[in-house]
Amino acid sequence: MSAKTTKDSKWIVTEEGTDAKTIRQNETLFALSNGHIGTRGSLEEAERTKEYSHSEATLVNAYYDSEPIQYGEWAYGYAKEHQTVIPVPNGKKLAIRLENDLFDLTTGKTTNHKRQLDLKKGLLTRSFTWENTQGHKLDVKIERFVSYDYPELLAQNITLTPQDDGCDLQMVANLDDLKELGNITEEESNDPRIKAHKERRFQSKRLEDFDNQLLHIETNNTHLHLIVGEKNQLSDPSVQSHFEDGAESWKLETKKGDTIQLERLIAYSNIFHEESKIEDKAQRLTTILNEASAIGFKGLKEKHIAHMEEFWELSDIEIVGDDELQVGLRFNLFHLYQAAGRDGKRNMSAKGLSGEGYEGHYFWDTEMYMLPFFLYTQPKIAKHLLNYRYTILEEARNRAREMAVDNGALFAWRTINGKEASPYYPAGTAQIHINGDIAHAVHTYVKATGDKRFGMKEGLEILVETARFYAGWGHFDEKRKGAFVLNDVTGPDEYTAIVNNNYYTNLMAKHNFKYAAEMVEAVLESNDEDGLGVLKRIGYDKAELENWKKAADKMFLPYDDEQQLTMQDDSFFHKEVWDIENTPKENFPLLLHYHPLTIYRYQVNKQADTVLAQFLFPDEFSQEQKARDYDYYESVTTHDSSLSRSVFGMMASDLGQMEKAYNYFMDTALMDITDLQSNTRDGVHAANMGGTWMSMVNGFGGMRLVEDRLHFRPRLPKDWTCVTFKVQFRHRLIKVSISKDDTEYTLIKGEPLVIRHFDEEKHLK
Predict the structure, then answer these.
(1) How many angstroms separate the CA atoms of 398 and 612, rounded?
(2) What percent of the chain is helix, strand and coil (3-state, nearest 5)?
(3) Which residues contribute to the annotated binding site for substrate?
């Protein structure tokens, strides 16, 4: 049995029963986070019943350890070290003993076992009745949330109601410092997307002389420091607690119907680097725990729910006519929101903070799939995510030098600290399109928000340095009549590697040149002091501007005149087509069953590549061209990447193929709930979740940003009655309600503006 959505609510994901496989799988679905900390939806007693748990991990964004990457044969410029986000002390562990029995789902009898994730409130609730081996019963309810008001805080409330008098009841709350971690399976060890942990990667020490239980931990190799603290409060003050080996316990005699409540607050400090700051950080965390405890679980929960209400007021999308997709969509938006770093120093990983897949690395996923959601609903968070890229710009410059490019910056394909962490360069460093992806995000952010200060400072520097790299990597090819070419690159499709003139990469580089030139000219024309300071500091030469314009104008974009098809790269059409239809189902994803060189020899796509380029710049292609390319590339795409389906769905909307768009959206919206990719256990597919929002707003809503104006071309699937969403644009809040016969645009907040609905201008006041 899988987790199922309740029929009486469009906001709740429910799991019923005690099926081990379901509970194990749903540790990911029921994960909670806030951009700083994240904890998987594991059972409180999971360590005693391993069959019910895949990973109990609690993670802190960017709290990682490193170790040298081992190569059989090393070459210059290879990535040097793994960067791996590691589990930190687990504050969810709770033991409940009734008489001589310790509770778990295999002891005694558990009935009415239910877990519910309330998306509207951001609250995970577990409830059940346990009958021990002697026939004594206990009603249990456990609530859990990760706070936005106190980002350090994981809050839990345990409610126990005995059905018998005179039984010995004991509770033990343990802040587990992970001295013992579980083993990994052979399947997990062979999957390149996973780096599971056999043992903890930090040293721990319990701190004395503070009001609360505190742990100081330090990673083995990166020497990152963290303070973890705990404060518990029992509803019956007459019951004294006992401390032993980091665990706090309470013993009492039950009274039938008398409820006992235990409030647990676990706090995780900010990451710090200097050992000298341990005492200050510990005192700060103690203050937070004491303040939160004074408010109490009920008060903290009320504040948390109020925060979630504000989020949904701006970010909800309502579908009338499809309740299953409605809750799936909200599930994705919920997880997307809780995954984002919010301090300008950390980003959001491919799995958010819901699991250990991809080692907690940040990819291009953020800028191309996740950032649009934040840009138009939570622009402050969008700015924080882009600021992270600015903080690692110096490492990107260093990487460009390693790649023998004397000027500019190359952002790492996968990273936490800014250094390249991908050991497989054909599908890592070769994906230099990441520069254009980040530049596109910077450009779009400035256009959509009007944030000129960011544009002429951090944005300007990123745009110039990324353009410089492309200018140094490529060259004007006399054998192509002086066209600007980019050779030996890999596009978004990782089943086609190290090629010349990947269409997507070249088009992104072309626009990167344009964005940089546009911003530099804006600085020079306005004589902006901040911008001029940036240009002086980074050694800008006016000759660069003309070179970028020339490279953009002469960018080589491969096209097959005979077939009238856009070429994914110079060599793609010269390869044999992979027989997808007759490939055994169990051989997908191909990357786990075929040598890379076998895959590279064929026309086969892991994900959208050329089609993604046409989605991003639709006005540069005719509808007829997009339709021909769509049909061709869809036929050779396996969708082995979770990033693929949303793009094909949005392009289907653009082409008016609404049934196909709906089917792709079904897969996108329910991907993790249905475990479509068969690896949800390792964490949610955060980029796909961003693609869900884009599918609604850019796909069915037809929203595009053209120059400085929003354009809409809405189309609804046949079974939907109405779709409503809101977008923020240049300090304005716009509500869009799309029905079968009409679309209504309402300016809720901000100055009047003009938008375009198909070919009609609409003035909103």
Answers:
(1) 29
(2) 35, 25, 40
(3) 364-365, 606-607
Name the residue ranges covered by the structural domains of the chain: 12-68+79-315
What are the residue ranges of helices labelled H in 168-226? 186-189
- Mean pLDDT score across all residues of the chain: 95
Q: Is the model's pLDDT at 6 over the cut of 80?
A: no
Residues in the chain: 765
Cα 691 versus chain centre, distance:
11
Burial group, residue 537, by CB count within 10 angstroms (0-12, 13-18, 19+): exposed
| Owner of token pair 């300071």 | 533
- Can you read off the two tokens belonging to residue 214? 């505190």
Residues 6+ apart with CB under 8 A from 592: 190, 191
Q: Which CATH class is domain 12-68+79-315?
A: mainly beta
* 241/168 Cα distance (integer angstroms): 15
514-543 tens-digit pLDDT: 999 999 999 999 999 999 999 999 999 999
Distance (Å) of CA 220 to CA 65, 207, 223, 224, 246:
7, 19, 6, 8, 22
- Among the residues of 554-676, which ranges form H helices? 596-600, 610-616, 623-635, 645-654, 658-669
Instruction: Identify the active-site residue in 15, 494, 544, 634.
Output: 494
The pLDDT of residue 178 is 83
Strands 709-712 and 475-477: unpaired
Distances in whole angstroms, Cα of residue 618 to Cα of each of 404, 650, 655, 694: 34, 11, 11, 15
Give this prediction's pTM: 0.96
Q: Rounded to the nearest 5°, which phi and psi values hold at 499?
A: -120, 170
494 catalytic residue (yes or no): yes
Q: What is the CA radius of gyration of the chain?
A: 27
Cα(144)–Cα(301) distance, rounded to whole angstroms?
9
CB atoms within 10 A of CB 453: 13
- Is the pLDDT confidence value at 8 over 70? no
